[in-house]
From TrEMBL:
<keyword id="KW-0827">Tyrosine biosynthesis</keyword>
<dbReference type="GO" id="GO:0006571">
    <property type="term" value="P:tyrosine biosynthetic process"/>
</dbReference>
<dbReference type="InterPro" id="IPR050812">
    <property type="entry name" value="Preph/Arog_dehydrog"/>
</dbReference>
<dbReference type="InterPro" id="IPR008927">
    <property type="entry name" value="6-PGluconate_DH-like_C_sf"/>
</dbReference>
<dbReference type="GO" id="GO:0070403">
    <property type="term" value="F:NAD+ binding"/>
</dbReference>
<keyword id="KW-0560">Oxidoreductase</keyword>
<feature type="domain" description="Prephenate/arogenate dehydrogenase">
    <location>
        <begin position="6"/>
        <end position="295"/>
    </location>
</feature>
<comment type="similarity">
    <text>Belongs to the prephenate/arogenate dehydrogenase family.</text>
</comment>
<dbReference type="InterPro" id="IPR046825">
    <property type="entry name" value="PDH_C"/>
</dbReference>
<dbReference type="GO" id="GO:0008977">
    <property type="term" value="F:prephenate dehydrogenase (NAD+) activity"/>
</dbReference>
<keyword id="KW-0028">Amino-acid biosynthesis</keyword>
<dbReference type="Pfam" id="PF02153">
    <property type="entry name" value="PDH_N"/>
</dbReference>
<dbReference type="InterPro" id="IPR003099">
    <property type="entry name" value="Prephen_DH"/>
</dbReference>
<dbReference type="Pfam" id="PF20463">
    <property type="entry name" value="PDH_C"/>
</dbReference>
<dbReference type="GO" id="GO:0004665">
    <property type="term" value="F:prephenate dehydrogenase (NADP+) activity"/>
</dbReference>
<comment type="pathway">
    <text>Amino-acid biosynthesis; L-tyrosine biosynthesis; (4-hydroxyphenyl)pyruvate from prephenate (NAD(+) route): step 1/1.</text>
</comment>
<keyword id="KW-0520">NAD</keyword>
Amino acid sequence: MPEKIKRLALIGIGLIGSSIARGACEYGLAEEIVVQTRRPETLEAAERLGLGDRYTLSAAEAAEGADLVIASVPVGAYGAVAEEIGPVLKPGAIVSDVGSVKAAVIRQVTPFLPEHAHFVPAHPVAGTEYSGPEAGFADLFRSRWCILTPPEGTDAAALASVRAFWEGLGSNVETMTPEHHDMVLAITSHVPHLIAYNIVGTAADLEAVTESEVMKFAAGGFRDFTRIAASDPTMWRDVFLNNKEAVLEMLGRFNEDLSALQRAIRWGDGDALFELFNRTRAIRRGIIAAGQETAEPDFGRAAAAKTV
Ligand SMILES: NC(=O)c1ccc[n+]([C@@H]2O[C@H](COP(=O)([O-])OP(=O)(O)OC[C@H]3O[C@@H](n4cnc5c(N)ncnc54)[C@H](O)[C@@H]3O)[C@@H](O)[C@H]2O)c1
Ligand SMILES: O=C(O)C(=O)C[C@]1(C(=O)O)C=C[C@@H](O)C=C1
């Protein structure tokens, strides 16, 4: 059991912030939780759901006197949050985030934090296509990776404290550089989302495919793409704008491999197609065998449905 955080401030209380609140409460990780969000309606929803002990619309008020501040806002908004909370952070306060992109968030946040505070960037690699405080659930992070990307010279005790917090939520914690994180996540998360947005957009644009037909025949693969393509537009706009280089690099590789597949189809090269499909099937089976995924993933839908 990690040492309890005395005062935990949560800035932003959507899917991720509210899941942290629920998990921290369920696993007894904090003595007091202060919840902040910008919109009164969202704050009221958080209060109705009992996600914290105190509620405020001011990030500075939430962060004042907090031992650990975790911001869970869109990737493009962390700088503004840091600017607001920087002046009120107490000596030794730890600031963290959950952004899906790391280098850009570190660039935004660092200039606004005082010397006496510690910044430990984090990214829980767990989510769903839902957003808002109702969508969260305590076990979202259980058995999922949480990647910490501490800048050089990060205070060891602050790093240990953030690691213990995420382990307390059930995550497996790994550390890496922000640049490496952004490259890995570009291919495992960001490009897959772009592909989903693109294929659903293309299908919807095709004249012959009316919206009702898209829904009517969306039973298998396409339906899975529509789930991903339902993810929050603000969040994903910010991810692509802030991980531009890595995404463009991975898209280049992706396009080359897609052209090779196009060529194999054009020239009837069944062996090339079979070899790739066989290899990718083995990858999926390896993931299931390693216990990282069930054969029929539910992506937290059952848990989210209970709370909505
Ligand atoms: N959704 C996922 O699957 C997932 C997974 C891991 C990490 N993340 C990261 O978590 C963060 C939050 O995502 P989420 O899914 O909880 O989103 P969400 O839309 O459910 O919640 C976002 C929260 O940020 C607040 N917010 C929105 N714009 C803001 C702004 N300009 N300034 C201050 N606050 C603002 C909203 O009021 C809300 O409280 C993002 O950085 C995202 O990259 C998301
Ligand atoms: O399961 C989903 O719906 C997700 O998209 C979660 C997912 C992912 O790509 O794996 C999305 C973005 C986050 O930064 C981390 C996790």
